[in-house]
Amino acid sequence: AQPPSDDELQAYYQANAEAFTSPEQVRVSMILLKVEPWAESEVWERRRHEAQEIYGQLERGADFEEQARRYSDDESAAQGGDMGYQHKGMLGSQAQAVIDKLQPGQMAAPEMLLEGVAIFKLEDRKEARLNPLDKVRDRAEALWLRDARERAYTDFVAALRARAEVSFSDPAYYLM
After folding, report:
1. What's the 3-state SS for the chain?
2. Of 133, 125, 119, the residue nearest 65 (C-alpha)
3. Is the pTM of this model over 0.85?
4. Which of 43, 71, 88, 173 has fewest C-beta within 10 Å?
5. 3-15 pLDDT tens trace
6. Do residues 148 and 13 lie in contact, with contact meaning Cβ atoms separated by under 8 Å?
């Protein structure tokens, strides 16, 4: 297939905007008090209580980064709990549901997760955004060509089937 014209490419880009859209990103910090999933309920309850105490300190003005370095069992503790920017879906669904309710600068009350008890803080939210065509032109052309080849193949097979004459020579296939 020939590369698309500028008009064809622009139309394809507009019709398939989701393929050229950067997903929402959130910058999240976390304090995680790990608990083994098979731990007894008393362990879970003790860790939940510890998380509530830490959360109370945070609400009273304690520094999140300092608390994360001191208490968090997550590898992000060394960065003050900062997990960096995460695309939607990179965090577990339970954590994502908590984070989706937050505005930048807000914290969520301790949440029980499979890994333990977590306190999340949303640092920043970058909304999903459509990338300009000039930045995704190569990708758009490649996808357009792939789709054009698929259409050409489908049309070719349909034309073959339309022209094909099928007959049966075995009497077992004749309808009575």
Report:
1. CCCCCHHHHHHHHHHCHHHHEECCEEEEEEEEEECCCCCCHHHHHHHHHHHHHHHHHHHCCCCHHHHHHHHCCCHHHHHCCEEEEEECCCCCHHHHHHHHCCCCCCECCCEECCCEEEEEEEEEEECCEECCHHHHHHHHHHHHHHHHHHHHHHHHHHHHHHHCCCCCCCHHHCCC
2. 119
3. no
4. 173
5. 899 999 999 999 9
6. no
Identity of the residue numbered 7 = D
The one-letter amino acid code at 112 reads M
pLDDT in tens, 26-69: 999 999 999 999 999 999 999 999 999 999 999 999 999 999 99
CA 19 to CA 38: how far, in whole Å? 41
